[in-house]
Amino acid sequence: MKKTVSLFLLAAALVLAGCRAKDSGAEQEKQDGNLSVLVYITGVTAGSPPYELMAAGAEEFAEANGNVRVMIYEAGFNQAEWEEQLTSLVADGEFDLVLGTNPSLPEICANVGEKFPAQRFIVTDAFYEGNPRISTYLYNQYEQSLYLGYLAGLITTGAMPQANAAKRIGFIASQEYPLLSKQIVPGFLEGARRVDPEIELDFRVIGNWYDANKAAELASGMIDTGVDVFTSIAGGASQGLIRTAKERGAYVLSYNTGEYDRMPGVIVGCGLMEQKKLVKEILADVLAGNIQYGTSRTVGAKEGYLDFIADDPGYRENIPPDIRERFDAFMDDIRAGRVDFSVPPL
Ligand code: RBF
């Protein structure tokens, strides 16, 4: 993390010294056709798929577009410091755009934007409307939860080697926040109960985004109560769950990214968040002046921004044909918008 920060300071100093006076702000640069983007990572990039995909998408876009400059900044795990850090990063008007991905980020951007009215912010994985400096994109995570939960339901009621008689599924979260508590966890249980209404959910919270040992401890306790298939929203701490599932014999389903190879035979289902694609589209829209600030757009499976990675041996060779047949059919219905569900309000 330190390395990224100091690289950032060096690059910022070079830009300020070499390119233009401090008061040539964001609007000026856009007229030049240049775009300077701060990717503000609310945590640490490594181990957190939404962050990794956003950083990679922005960097790939900058590589393909010589007029775009991207700086990745990792704000670290102390959430109390995020607003102050962002304030000092945007204070000299160096960045045309702050790009981030986190449900709690828009409020921070709103506060920072009051001090720097010309600053523009785009946040994915978030919902926020009515602020002329902020545009957001919300993934329909109720939908991803529904289909991952459906697969969990098929596994816990099915006959895979590590599945037991108990109809219990597990969810380990790093932290509770509205999107998680109101949509992600309820969607996961709803999906499982569409397979069998008797399925119970064991839900536990780690308390931070990095403590893999705590995740391992929680997972072990949950296996003791009969959980045989897990999911998690836990960033880097998910490593502890995966390790325990391997040692004790249980399955793991992942949100947002293909990670079957992290623990073959244990991670048997992976959702997909098309964050890289979305980030590139957003940056192209910024260059073209096509962003509607003040609005929020919701994107899900039907729109092509959420999916499930079924064409991987980690899924095909570990999930038996009878379960795959039912799940693939459900997934087809999801993609086609044929599954009825109502998303609980945030
Ligand atoms: N997700 C991660 O993968 N890693 C993180 O470090 C992380 N930190 C978060 C911090 C806060 C305050 C909030 C509200 C969410 C965080 N998330 C993190 C969750 C992430 O934004 C997203 O909702 C989930 O990954 C589900 O797609």
Describe this protein's structure.
Helices cover 43% and strands 19% of the residues. α4 (82-90) packs across α5 (105-115) and α6 runs antiparallel to α12. The longest helix is centred in the N-terminal third of the chain and has 17 residues, at 2-18. It has helices at 2-18, 26-31, 49-64, 82-90, 105-115, 141-157, 178-193, 212-224, 238-248, 275-287, 313-316, 321-335, and strands spanning 35-41, 68-74, 97-101, 120-124, 134-139, 168-173, 200-205, 229-233, 251-254, 267-273, 296-299, 306-308. α3 (49-64) links the parallel β1 (35-41) and β2 (68-74). Mean pLDDT is 93; it is low at 1-29. The strands form two sheets. Strands 2-1-3-4-5-11 form a six-stranded parallel β-sheet, with helices on both faces. The chain has a six-stranded mixed β-sheet with strand order 7-6-8-9-10-12, sandwiched between helices. The protein contains twelve helices and twelve strands. The radius of gyration is 21 Å and the shape is globular. The chain folds into two domains: 2-139 and 275-299, Rossmann fold (3-Layer(aba) Sandwich); 141-272 and 310-336, Rossmann fold (3-Layer(aba) Sandwich), CATH 3.40.50.2300. The protein is of the alpha/beta class and 346 residues long. It binds riboflavin (RBF). Residues 42-43, 48, 50, 79, 102-104, 125, 141, 175, 177, 179, 209, 233, 235, 255-256 line the site of riboflavin.
